[in-house]
Amino acid sequence: MKFCQYALASALFASTASAFSINTPSNAFVVSKSSSSALFSSTIEAPSTALDEEVSFEPMRPPLKDFSWENVSEQLTSKFGYSEADLEKYTALDGDKEGLMKLYKDMQMARGFENACNQQYMQGKIRGFMHLDNGQESIPGMVASAIKNGDKKYSYYREHTHALASGVAPGPVMAELFMKEGGTCKGAGGSMHIFDKPTYFQGGWALVSEQLPYAAGAAKSILLDRELKLSDDEKQDKVNVAPPEDDDRISVVFIGEGGSQNGRMAEILNAAAKDNLPLLVIVIDNGRAINTFTPDVATNSDVYKQGEHYGIPGILVDGTNAADVTKAGKAVVDYVRTTGPAIMQVHTYRFNGHSPADPEHERGRKGEKKWARDEQDPLKFFENKFIENGTFTEDELKAARKEVLAEVKAAVKFADESPMPPVELAKELEYPDAPDTDYNLKPAPAFADEVNARTISADQMKTIHNHIATLREKASAGEITIGDAINLAIHEEMLRDPTTTIHAEDLQAGSSYDIPKLTQQTYGQIRAADEIIDEGHFIGKALGEGMNGYRPIVELMNTNFGIYGMAEISSAGNTFATTGGQFDMPMTIIGAGGTAPNQSLGAEHSQPFHAYVMGIPGLKICTAASPAAAYGITKSMIRDNGPCFLFAPVKMMKEAKGTVDLDRCLPLNKAALLHEASADSVAAGNAVTVLTYLHGVKESQISIAEIQDEGMDIDLIELRTLKPLDMETIAKSLERTNKICILDESTKSGGVGATISAAISEELFDLLDAPVKRLSMDDAPVPYASSMEKAVVKRGSDLVQAVIDLCSNSV
């Protein structure tokens, strides 16, 4: 109980006022401990040690010494090309009482809201992790003054105040923290995942730095709107209306200086420079990576200079001086609107620990917090400056605080009174489109022909139609490969819906299997992007496009390369649910994968990535071992409003050929019965249901004759959908055979077969005459040498023996 009292007192102490000194001659500061002792004396037992003496404290990270508007203006003129006359537009804020009052109220809202959050957390009304922004209020103050509603905003887990500054109402933000249905995300997101579609506030992302490529993708969506002459309707669906001539929307991303050391930072700076993205990176530099002193782990904390060798200007400002931050912020934002990407680093101090539950054992942190509250509070700096120069009276600012705190109190009341979300909502938010959706019935955009006509030249259109005609002839003749079938589906869908885009490495050359062949040559770099060799980066950019009205396709070449993008794939799966159903996530990831016998690719190219992603919620995961399956599933996935992942067999991409049911979408929840056991074998008890996928399909098909020679037969089911799993088809076959074998292209531990076997044992146990037989890859890495590989990778000969064993040993 005393811990809770102490924590609550600490929260209140964070907002108390004390004298602030602007002109400190050195980095040493005098701190009095008597005020904290007095504050706590009524709530906890004070230690016997005397605390009234004054001590000299030198912060590990000193403030920006003698930093003034002259430092800021010099950077704006030298790095951003502004003239002194240009800057008068921004310095006018110093004499703009109304504008300054707005800035003060926005900062007070940030402080008051976070203090209320801390109090509600201590009372148990807010659960889980929570990260507060006290001490950094100049940043939301600037955002509220400089950013427009239509700008796309991406933040990280400390985003409450960024959402408020972006125009999100305090009540729904607080209700989201209270896990209430009245929250921005209906209680599905929580403190770290605030999203609000009407204000284009697009997160709230909890994995450090993941928001960077998402924001780059959102910036790319603005360029796509301009190039395709499309805009958002009231539901943010694309309509055939060009953005206004003066469209100056930008994408804004917030990140800490610790997170800025992540490699994603270099990647988005490269992308921003290459495509001249309207992207502003706001670096919140509080000197702490979680609680660790950032210079302890990073050699260079001057993040604003990272863009120099990309041609991207940066600026450093002092977060204690909110008016200067806002003036500089407006100038930098205007630069991004008219010229190109930029970085703005705000030197600030965070008054609270990483989270209320944070032990804060790192060196120097506790003393620094106390010192920063006394000496680096942007609210006290603002009050002192603008009361002393006569802009405001104490009574005016007191009235403003009272007004803001009333809003905060109302937000807490709104959250308290909101109902909890219904339990059924969790399952409803699993997928944007139901698993049994018939994608053939989805209409194409009415504007497709008009957009194609104005973005694809006559010569390009002739070339691509000839290419499509050639592939369709092959498909009808049974001569099309899996790679070409996917390429055909992609082109048909990109013409059908011009909001479809594609990202891949080696895209111009068609990648390894011709999947993206002729996409850039037809649709241009704006829709068909050749990417740097980092799958996480371009999966992340695709996610940002998907949140903003586009349908990105990501071609991975080899699906194992997707390991680089696990964070982004995971977030894609979670987005629809986490946002309370606000944001669809139409993204199709396609690649060649799996492990064939005698593959000779070694361990890294033979990993069962399909098993790795099985545990990610919200993904639809399919496989295709034939051109027909690859074509129909690809078309459906591109039309689906959620994230889908198609795995094709790496060693069969050019080998397997067949016919295709043209212009037809296949379901994303159905397996396929490729061979049915004879009635005689079923009657004799010599039939087995075989479940397999990818290369296992070929291995099974070539084994059927040998199995039949042994007097047995199989129902061969291709698991075209791993998630959701088609238990109906499996049950129907088991009702005939009562025996089942899984030829699995993943490891015994944690593999696809393990999941399927468990489901069969739980749901279809009464249909089994024998235990489920699993033929899985061994847990050992896949060797290169074929002699050793036999010990790891199962094949047709193993299946034949398994069928014999099942039929011989069944009850």
UniProtKB/TrEMBL annotation:
<keyword id="KW-0786">Thiamine pyrophosphate</keyword>
<feature type="signal peptide">
    <location>
        <begin position="1"/>
        <end position="19"/>
    </location>
</feature>
<dbReference type="Pfam" id="PF02779">
    <property type="entry name" value="Transket_pyr"/>
</dbReference>
<dbReference type="InterPro" id="IPR001017">
    <property type="entry name" value="DH_E1"/>
</dbReference>
<protein>
    <recommendedName>
        <fullName>Transketolase-like pyrimidine-binding domain-containing protein</fullName>
    </recommendedName>
</protein>
<feature type="compositionally biased region" description="Basic and acidic residues">
    <location>
        <begin position="357"/>
        <end position="373"/>
    </location>
</feature>
<dbReference type="Pfam" id="PF00676">
    <property type="entry name" value="E1_dh"/>
</dbReference>
<dbReference type="InterPro" id="IPR009014">
    <property type="entry name" value="Transketo_C/PFOR_II"/>
</dbReference>
<dbReference type="Pfam" id="PF02780">
    <property type="entry name" value="Transketolase_C"/>
</dbReference>
<keyword id="KW-0732">Signal</keyword>
<dbReference type="GO" id="GO:0006086">
    <property type="term" value="P:pyruvate decarboxylation to acetyl-CoA"/>
</dbReference>
<keyword id="KW-0560">Oxidoreductase</keyword>
<dbReference type="GO" id="GO:0004739">
    <property type="term" value="F:pyruvate dehydrogenase (acetyl-transferring) activity"/>
</dbReference>
<dbReference type="InterPro" id="IPR050642">
    <property type="entry name" value="PDH_E1_Alpha_Subunit"/>
</dbReference>
<feature type="region of interest" description="Disordered">
    <location>
        <begin position="351"/>
        <end position="373"/>
    </location>
</feature>
<dbReference type="InterPro" id="IPR005475">
    <property type="entry name" value="Transketolase-like_Pyr-bd"/>
</dbReference>
<feature type="domain" description="Transketolase-like pyrimidine-binding">
    <location>
        <begin position="480"/>
        <end position="655"/>
    </location>
</feature>
<dbReference type="InterPro" id="IPR029061">
    <property type="entry name" value="THDP-binding"/>
</dbReference>
<dbReference type="InterPro" id="IPR033248">
    <property type="entry name" value="Transketolase_C"/>
</dbReference>
